[in-house]
Input
Amino acid sequence: MNNALITKYNKPAPRYTSYPPANHFTEEIDHRHFEKALSESNNFSPNHISFYLHIPFCKKLCFYCGCNTCPLGKATQVEAYLDALKKELKTVIGLLDKNRKVSQIHYGGGTPNSIPAEALHELNQMIFDAFDLTENAEIAIETNPAYLDHSYIEALKTAGFNRFSLGIQDFNRNVLKMVNRDPSALPVDELMAIIKAGKPANAINFDFIYGLPGQTVESFSQTIRQAVALRPDRLVTFSYAHLPSVFKNQKILEKRGLPDSSLKVELYETAAEILKEAGYKAIGMDHFVLPDDELFVSLEKKKLHRNFQGYCTRETTGQVYAVGVSAISQLEQAYLQNTKSVDDYIKRINEMGAATVKGYLLNQNEMLIRESITELMCNRNLDLNDLANKRQLQLPEVLQALRINEAELHEFVNDGLLEIQNHHYQITDEGQLFIRNIAASLDPLQQNPTRLYSQTV
Ligand SMILES: C[S@@+](CC[C@H](N)C(=O)[O-])C[C@H]1O[C@@H](n2cnc3c(N)ncnc32)[C@H](O)[C@@H]1O
Ligand code: SF4
Output
């Protein structure tokens, strides 16, 4: 990768896991909007339901972490949290049309496997009792392998989970030590064998992060080689997002020596090369999957989609109903975010039945911008003529809504990152690394950015 391009484009930009980005949510939307927004969502598409359940607790905090976490403290707090979570889930289920089907359940954190598997089973059962599932519904859990053993995995399988994400982050013990993280308790191949046993075999994702102290091209290549030898169904290489003003522990990593942006790109490119050689296909910026994976099949058909939980196919995509502390519901017409403090969450659920403290109601223009940015981020491709047809608009109306920055787009073209033909945008292989920059040029909010974002590289 050309260093001049990295220097030119390595600037702050949204990650676009939502549009508008979560830092544009406003406190004007709160628990008073919760019931109406959820009831109305029954009339919008996608019709399928995705549930997201947030388990914030971690036995030990990793210094790089940018998620909403809290140290696993008193058992009474965990108990009160799970009671509140069940209460909120019951309310949400009560507001949803039972003719809709559930296509996805996702547990994130924090560390969902820091609490007893029976508690997760109980939550899943509430959903299974209320709704039918789609044929290939995905019941997924993010896990920290330091806290997985045989009986816990078996209990998760009994609870209905069929996709297990293992947060490896790095196999190198020195790197893990630098970031205050324990390695997997059991050898990862043993964990995989337990997860996969039975029919149909469950799916396995690995998570890695590049850009951590102590990582070198040699050490990270070794980690990725070790990973491909284990053949997970999917593998994610997250670019370390450094925002120490928000996540204070990250300051410790500055002292331990963070790789600069050109080393970061080298880490990514070397990993991508090893993955490609091993037969993995790239999805978006950081996901790699086996060629028969439904995500790659969808990408080939330009039908890939994404939500806060990551990439999904048009079939699994549902409106997301998120419960738990800091959880964000992603409805067609609204975002609703719960309070970020565990104690406040418990209090609000017990007193008001809802814990929404922020959100956003989208207008038609914003839905159009969201669709454009999602198309680019997922499928590297955006045809504004198609979009106009789909939304029954004239092309000039679409151009007006997006307020496209033509000069900036042509610079991407001159730098070989983007091809444009008759309002059809195609991101090149070189442009993949700068996809956030390209998406930002279609975003009116980024013409005068007022919020804080991590660097694009
Ligand atoms: C909620 S965490 C994961 C689950 C589990 N607690 C674990 O530690 O494996 C989800 C993923 O976010 C990624 N992540 C966390 N902080 C990050 C950061 N600052 N930049 C990039 N990725 C990050 C990690 O790869 C992690 O596996
Ligand atoms: S990476 Fe996982 S275990 Fe580490 S602090 Fe974040 S959520 Fe907790």
Observations:
- The CA atoms of residues 263 and 397 lie 43 Å apart.
- The two ends are 12 Å apart (CA to CA).
